[in-house]
Amino acid sequence: MIGLFKLAGLFALTAVAEIVGCYLPWLVLKQSRSAWLLVPAALSLAAFAWLLTLHPTAAGRTYAAYGGMYIAVALVWLRVVDGVALTRWDVAGAGVALVGMAIIALQPATSP
Hints:
Elements: H1 2-31, H2 38-52, H3 59-80, H4 88-105
Helix pairs in contact: 1-2, 1-3, 3-4
Transmembrane segments: 33-51, 63-80, 86-106
Pfam family, one: UPF0060
Family: Belongs to the UPF0060 family.
């Protein structure tokens, strides 16, 4: 179970890096914020790419499992940063996505 929490934490950190890296350019383009926000955006996306390399499994499987955590973190971002109330459908969808992440991430190891 500790492995799942560690993996989930790494996925969550990875998701935050990706969201920040995409949200800052969105602010520049949609809300006419300073172009200087593109500098931390680029750094955040570089951190995102680096964080993905820390995951112990094949890239495709990592991306598939990561997607579940990304959905949950994006909804937390929607609530906390954008101030939009989550619906029960948002919460249920995030729960399903997290279960999917756990199934993919915790599958038994197979030999090649």
